[in-house]
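Table 4 source record.
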Amino acid sequence: MQRLLILIAILVFGSVVYSQTSELRIIEQPKPPLPKDYGLLDVQGSLLLKVEFLSTGKIGKIVLFSKLCPELDDLAVEAAKKITFKPKVVDGKPIDRYKVVEYMYSWEFGGWRVPPIKKFANSPSAPKH
């Protein structure tokens, strides 16, 4: 009987601790719109952006790590500002988090593609330029 009570206590308290900690969860990462001169741009590749996901559920600073051309860069940054997410929670409190967001552009696959979001850093400090 005592073992059963211990097992129940571990399960109950374990689930409470588990529920107080959760990872950042992206709900939606929208694609940027097609550029005005789509079809005429001789550009393709990936844009990497370091995005600050704030504990408030808002997007903070965005730093471009790689660029394609000014128009595509601007469209990707604007799309990243519209990402919806649930913040990372540690000990029951939401925290700021940084992740690298990637947008791929190529006229061969019809414009923009959004690959899964990648982990960048756990640091709550501001991004370095």
